[in-house]
Specification:
The chain is mainly α. It is built from seven helices and no strands. It has two domains: about 40 residues; about 160 residues, no CATH class. The longest helix has about 40 residues.
């Protein structure tokens, strides 16, 4: 209903005619689509863990798109939940894989951020992105963190360059990276086997 109302109202408030941000219908659609896919294509044993994981990713996407900030309450503070779910067998990874995924995910982006800063003396990756990849690693393991970063980087580069070219905002325009990491994580959860076959050529 919120999606239909937004379309019928042409993105404006009925009473004051002020524009309603496209983020509202976008998040409504994203949430509905993801949880339908989760119910249809993931084992019921993993639903509770992925429900929390996806909810955290959706909140991160929303806040990063609007404010360029990602709260630790939905990233770093939920990493122990990944450990708990994996330890209880409620995720398709072991506790060891979950811990290593969080550590490697954090280290991958933290190291990249430090290297970028040494080269340019500018901050190219926010701390929120680093902590988001740690969360992703805790729920998907090392492979999930790495593939999420790979997919996110490719998608971010393609869309970011296209946005700069079309909008003519300049090469120094700030583009949130969190949504692309989340995209990689969603892709990994639903398509990890095809992705592995694609990358390994098997």
């Amino acid at each position: 209903m919120p999606l239909v109302s937004w379309i019928l109202l042409r993105g404006r408030c009925r009473s004051c005619q002020k524009p309603i941000s496209w983020l509202y219908p976008f998040i409504e659609f994203l949430t509905t689509a993801l949880f339908i896919l989760l119910i249809l294509f993931q084992p019921i044993d993993y639903f509770a863990a992925y429900f929390i994981f996806f909810s955290a990713l959706i909140v991160s996407v929303r806040s990063d798109l609007e404010t360029m900030l990602i709260s630790r309450y939905v990233t770093l503070f939920l990493v122990p939940a990944g450990f708990l779910f994996s330890g209880l067998g409620l995720l398709p990874i072991s506790l060891t894989q979950s811990i290593l995924g969080a550590l490697v995910g954090y280290a991958l982006l933290w190291g990249t951020a430090q290297f970028f800063f040494l080269l340019t003396r500018k901050e190219g990756i926010g701390q929120g992105d680093v902590e988001l990849l740690a969360l992703i690693g805790s729920f998907t393991g090392i492979a999930g963190a790495w593939l999420s970063l790979l997919i996110g980087s490719l998608a971010g580069s393609l869309i970011g360059l296209s946005y700069i070219a079309v909008a003519k905002v300049g090469r120094n325009a700030k583009i949130p990276f969190g949504p692309f990491l989340a995209l990689g994580a969603f892709g990994y959860v639903f398509f990890r086997e095809p992705l592995f076959k694609l990358l390994t050529g098997i």
